[in-house]
Amino acid sequence: MMDYTDRHFRHLIRLLSKQTLLYTEMVSANAVAHERQFHQTHYRQQHPEACLDTMLQNYNIDYIATRFLAQGTAQEGPSILQLGGSDPDLLYQAAQAVSELSQRSYSDYHCNYTALNLNCGCPSPKVAGKGCFGAALMDDPVLVRDLCHALYEGGQQQYPVTVKCRIGTDTKRSWKDDNNNNNYDEALYQDLCHFIETVAAGGIVQEFTIHARIAVLTKSFSPADNRKIPPLKYHLIQRLVQDYPHLRFILNGGIESIPQVQDQLHRVPGLRGVMVGRAFCADPWRFSGADALLYHSNDTEVPLHRWHILQQYAQYADAQEQQYDPTTIRRFLIKAVTGLFAGEPNSKKYRIALDEIAGLPKKGIHTPVSELLLEAATKHLSEETLFRSPLESYELQTQGQNKDLVQEWQADRQVIL
Questions:
Q1: Is 354:272 a contact under the CB 8 Å cutoff?
Q2: Calpha distance 59→52 (Å, rounded)
Q3: Which residues are catalytic?
Q4: Other C-beta atoms within 10 Å of 292: how many?
Q5: Does residue 346 surpass a pLDDT of 60?
Q6: Spatial distance between the Cα atoms of 250 and 264, rounded to a whole number of angstroms
Q7: Predicted local distance difference test score (pLDDT) of residue 210
Q8: Which of 33, 83, 385, 407 is the most buried (most CB within 10 A)?
Q9: Alpha-carbon gap, residue 415 to 159, rounded angstroms
């Protein structure tokens, strides 16, 4: 998710789950390619005698890593770099930058992604409208196939390439004509099949993550509208799983809990997985039992409780502030943990305390961030909240004691920016 699943948030999630597959924010291929070209040109001017290998090892790719591509630690585990763009050359160069950075084992930065993903699902007017990529790409599956080929070749054929998309767009038929019409659904499904078949025909893409809503690309429709108004059509993804058993499909859209994940996996044998976005950002702890419940990991691999998670994250935050300027990185570090105690008594007081902590470096106050994070938690949160286990929290979910925290998060997420 843009502005949320950065490397700090992904580090927090990896503390909660070792097994789940993580996605980065969508990174603009244009931005990565531009910075790569700029720093390569600058290095050539300063060192005209340098050979290509030396240049790749020494030009300022560290800046590119810090800004666009870096992972929080070398132990980030299964994770996919999500790229956005509609120019094959720029996507090729962006994938090249990823490959180059991954080869710099001595670097202070980590770039060990499991796969590269092309975003064909973002309906934002800035992306699908002015940018002419994201969900707009679904109307040109041949181009999508070429873009995926460019990613594969730019990454030196070492990264699998996947596609994240929707079930379609409104360019051929309006979502208002739906009304649970079987003919509408069938036409929509045939268009989706054409997209899947065309992209997969390139021999590169074997996996699709599909948001089960149509993308409405008219300017009057906001990203929030696109997440709520078009109806979810899980049955279309279920059909894809049945009709294309040689491909892998991941269902996305409207999933807010582990029980819902379990339900979809039970309903659709052969479904590769289920993606969770906003609900994970709103309440990460809600999914802390994922390894035990979905991957059947040993109890020793499951996080103990939120106090343990916060202690580990606090150590990471200290290390980050030793490497980077606290006045610039502090707010990003703090933002990652704002939802860790969502829905708990006094959680709002805790978030307000985090907001104050985020601004301290600019006031010249340099108390270690770990000390501040842990002090705020013990001051505002109960022992029951701090030390509740993942499985105890899961039982509360199944008993219906968790309120809808996604809407609450939507309202409060501007507290820390």
A1: no
A2: 10
A3: 122
A4: 20
A5: yes
A6: 10
A7: 98
A8: 83
A9: 38
Q: pLDDT band at 218, cuts 50/70/90?
A: confident
In the chain, where the domains are located: 7-283, 306-412
Integer Cα distance of 118 and 129 in angstroms: 17
What is the rounded distance in angstroms from the CA atom of residue 22 to the CA atom of residue 281? 12
> Do residues 117 and 147 lie in contact, with contact meaning Cβ atoms separated by under 8 Å?
no
User: How far is the C-alpha of 376 from the C-alpha of 352, rounded, in Å?
Assistant: 10
SS3 state of residue 110: strand
CA distance 280 to 116: 21
| Diameter over CA atoms, the chain | 68
DSSP for 55-103, please give it: HHHHSSHHHHIIIII-BSSTT--SEEEEEE-S-HHHHHHHHHHHHHHHT
From CA 376, how far away is CA 193, in angstroms rounded? 52
**Which one, of 216, 210, 204, lies nearest residue 239 by Cα?**
210
What integer pLDDT is reported at residue 62 of this predicted model? 56
Cβ atoms of residues 18 and 73 within 8 Å: no
User: Can you state the percent helix, strand and coil of the chain, rounding each to 5?
Assistant: 55, 10, 35
- C-alpha to C-alpha distance for 68 and 77, rounded to whole angstroms: 18
Residue 415 pLDDT greater than 80, yes or no: no
Rounded alpha-carbon distances, angstroms, from residue 134 to 58, 143, 251, 287: 33, 12, 18, 28
| Alpha-carbon distances of 80 from 25, 183, 208, rounded to whole Å | 10, 36, 13
- CA-nearest of 138, 100, 103 to 119 is 138
Give all strands (DSSP E) within 261-358, no chain letters.
273-275
pLDDT score for 54: 54
- Kindly compute the dihedral angle of the four CA atoms of residues 84, 213, 192, 258, in this order, to the nearest 10 degrees: 90
